[in-house]
Amino acid sequence: MSEPAIHTERQMIRPEKDTFLAEENPFEAMMERFDHAAQLLKLDPGLYKVLRNPEKQIITSVPVVRDNGEVEVYTGYRVLYNTSRGPAKGGIRFDLNVTLEEVKALAAWMTWKCALVNIPFGGAKGGVVCDPTAMSMQELERVTRRYTSSIIETLGPIRTCPRQT
User: Fold this and answer.
1) Confidence category of residue 145, pLDDT binned at 50, 70, 90
2) What's this model's pTM, rounded to 2 decimal places?
3) What are the domain boundaries of the chain?
4) Does 125 participate in catalysis according to the annotation?
5) For the structural domain made of 5-164, what CATH number should be given?
6) From 56, 89, 104, 125, active-site residue
7) Residues 86-143: pLDDT tens digits?
8) Which residues of 57-71 are buried (b: 16+ CB within 10 A; e: fewer)?
């Protein structure tokens, strides 16, 4: 029996995302694409300067007590790229390979996606450098709660709307 069509579509989309995330500097790679689009659109120079830079970048320590009693300190990131269209939306990525450059790039992409489909949101993204596959559900919950408490000043219905991914 053949696999559903949606699986085939994911296989077609996924390699592009993997390629993007595997680039040496995902933010610079995204900015090259943005620069090209800005030229084609003849974007106003002032707006161009604003859209090349994230509004806010947070780097935070995420100390958590593991199930075995040991304390582990993870690094967390949150980037609010642009909130001119409304509160920023963007998920939280838990992965060993998360970097600030990747989070900035993904936050920028969310900004562009929201603008393209004309929804009243800006773009954001978060990430925690950890291996969620090596964590219990309780440990992952503690990491999520601690990370969230460390960025709480950026959360809320008029600021940013995170979603765990």
Assistant:
1) very high
2) 0.79
3) 5-164
4) yes
5) 3.40.50.10860
6) 125
7) 999 999 999 999 999 999 999 999 999 999 999 999 999 999 999 999 999 999 999 9
8) ebebebebeeeeeee
